[in-house]
Amino acid sequence: MGVEPACPVSLLFLAGIIIWVVEAEVHYYDFVLAEKNFTRLCKTKSMLVVNGQFPGPTIYVHKGDTVFVNVHNHGDYGLTIHWHGVKQPRNPWSDGSAYITQCPIEPGHNFTYEVVFSEEEGTLWWHANSDWTRNTVHGAIVIYPPHGFSYPFPTPAGEQILILGTWFTYDVNKVIKEILRTGKDVPVSDAYIINGQPGDFCACSKEMAYRWQVDYRKTYLIRLVNALMNEEFFFAIAGHDLIVVGIDGSYLKPFTTSYVMLSNGQTMDVLVKTNRSPGRYYMAGRQYYTDNLFFTGYDKTNASAILEYRGKYDRLSSPFFPEKLPSYTDYDSATQFRKRLKSLASKEHPIDVPRNVTTQMYITASMDKIVHNFSAYMDYTLLSSLNNISWVNPSTDVLQAYYRNLSGFYTLDFPDEPPYYFDFVADLRDDSTHPLKGTKVKVLEYGEEVEIVFQSTNLLNASDEHSMYIHGHKFYVLGEGYGNFNSTRDTETYNLVDPPYLSTASLPVKGWLTIRFKANNPAGVWAMHCQEGRHLIWGMNTVLIVKNGSNPETSIRTPPPNMPSCASYPSIHKALEVSAE
After folding, report:
1. Quick check: 20 and 148 in contact, CB under 8 A?
2. Are the CB atoms for 547 and 522 separated by under 8 Å?
3. What 8-state DSSP symbol labels residue 135?
4. pTM of the predicted model, to two decimals?
5. I want to staple 504 with a disulfide (CB 3.0 to 4.6 A). Which of 38, 469, 479, 560 is the partner?
6. Over 70: is that where the pLDDT of 5 sits?
7. Which helix (H) or strand (E) holds 140?
8. What is the pLDDT averaged over residues 426-435?
9. Which interval of the chain is the signal sequence (predicted)?
10. Would you identify the CATH topology of the domain 150-348?
């Protein structure tokens, strides 16, 4: 439970002027990981959850607060907990990135994270960060404005957290363990869920749909979290417009829309006005599918919850369904929605777009495979890569190796551009680029300004949208488009005035995405990867190492004394290599 200090805000009187002195709070939580039975879609299974809850407990803080979370692992898997979108200034030790900033917390052990909310304001989330354990181990983080400050919009009458998730009728972690051994494709989910429930359109679920009661003629704040394993997601409420006001813990210029689209791992704050005829209305979502259209077996579940007005009306009639919820493959709706995301850029919430770029990178994101020639047959393992490098987890975490100057665990040669240039978005059914497996990192000087152009490729005819995420930093999204990036034509479309300030952004299918950020989180070892579970476990990952600055305030903190040791948890690609021998 959180612990509240007695006096979070003080008033000082100086020369007749009232001065607000904001005192940051410290909160303490215990997360106990253990198996528990849950029944959905007519089937019961045991799954790993925190404190017996699914989704897990919500963390409530104000901007500037610090949270200590003691994680007790009573489950069967080694794992870490990551605080998605939290900068963690000078404190990569608590980032919770498996084999990047720490080794997993083994079963029977515990570790306490120190999570510092320095610049975030809005909604974020936490989740497990080892293989696919985050499928059931996740929860929301609510960051209120500092004490004495308010939202940049009228204070809502209430708020509601809606966590969008993925449901499998079996223990998907066991299946993923076998897939990592064989290198084959991942399973399709059985349903999508809202706050742990599939809703009225799924078997054995009609009476269990999540319900939210509201009053007539009020304005409410909805905090959306895309905690799905692999998918981007459309969401809408029947008969009600949504006013988008925030994303990834940053404020946006408000705009009204009939639907929203969340990248995988993204969070969003939206207002809804309850000004319709009292009744029941579906809050519904479905995946935004961008993979190969020849495959039609993807999960077509319409996840649903119900917004219920208080008062007297016919409750026997079925709720209204959102007519303007985009279809699964509506590329135009997704693109047009993203184009409307613009930072608030106010005096109270200024932006600082980097203008003096010293490092430029052009990074291709690809699906790959490695073919194995056996004596009697041929086989392959699936991989994914950035600039033709498929990440391999080291035997100890990169942060420990870097901090203690240990050699042999990684190399400093992650490339600034791909090794081959070709028509990246053409139909390329075979992979002739021969991806390399390695633990290659990119080193950045403290304070330098970085521009990255991500380019999606269509190797294996498998171009897909990628939700690109950087730990320890947020970035400005200057632009995106379809086709191969053109440095002359496309740079003219950049938004340098009020670009959205994100931690997770969509790289369009057969397209490009440009971001900029300042490398100002020192001596950090920060992962940069596709958030989607299957691409991440296949190696679409690298690491940015930011050097120390010139003084203690711009240098890494000392490590805590009880960091988990790297003992028995195997790296992803070691398992693949064993299967190929």
Report:
1. yes
2. yes
3. G
4. 0.93
5. 469
6. no
7. strand 138-144
8. 76
9. 1-24
10. Immunoglobulin-like (2.60.40)
